[in-house]
Design brief:
The protein has 181 residues and is mainly α. The protein has seven helices and no strands. It has one domain. Helix 2 packs parallel to helix 6 and helix 4 packs antiparallel against helix 7. The structure holds fe (ii) ion. Fe (ii) ion binds next to helix 3, helix 4 and helix 6.
Length: 181
């Protein structure tokens, strides 16, 4: 295991699936239709689906195609959080959460770049995908169970409007506008 793999392994989910589900339920209750948190929760689910699609692919060509889709939604989501949501988190009580968010997402970006170089049907690929999935799930758990609820509690109505508009703009700038189909 490389140093980065070990760093990622160190943050791999200590929490149970049940705890993750509870965090998602709390965050879903706190979100309003279409607001920044609602958009983020949808993107978290898109990322989970994309991870599952990479794993389920049965040949190299389809796994490579699914990996590109995963990279698109993961990077678009990370960029939008890093440009809009974490700066807002840095202004609320637990400032350390913003720094941790940036660090964790940087590690995932490094891991994704390494994953793209591996033979998509190799055991090594699956092991790295496992690390990425563990790190991403734990990161989402922290966001949904704690960090974003704290931001919601502290944000004014005007802040909420701005975060909602800016998150959508940054995500769409990378991923493209949602299709109307
Ligand atoms: Fe996120």
């Amino acid at each position: 295991m490389s140093i980065i793999d070990r760093m990622i392994a160190a943050v791999t989910p200590p929490e149970s699936d049940e705890a993750r589900l509870e965090a998602r339920t709390r965050a879903t209750r706190a979100a309003l239709p279409g607001d920044w948190l609602d958009q983020i929760l949808q993107h978290h689910m898109d990322i989970e689906d994309a991870l599952a699609d990479v794993r389920a692919a049965s040949d190299a060509a389809s796994r490579t195609a699914q990996l590109k889709q995963l990279a698109l939604v993961l990077t678009g989501h990370a960029i939008a959080e890093e440009a809009v949501i974490y700066p807002a988190m840095a202004n609320v009580a637990a400032k350390g959460h913003a720094g941790m968010g940036y660090d964790e997402q940087a590690l995932v970006k490094v891991q994704m770049a390494l994953l793209e170089k591996l033979d998509p049907m190799s055991q090594e690929f699956i092991e790295k995908l496992d690390h990425i999935e563990g790190a991403v799930k734990h990161h989402m758990y922290q966001e949904e169970g704690d960090w974003f609820l704290e931001l919601k509690d502290s944000a004014s109505v005007a802040d909420e409007v701005l975060l909602t508009r800016r998150y959508a703009e940054e995500y769409e700038r990378y991923v493209g506008a949602p299709s109307l189909a």
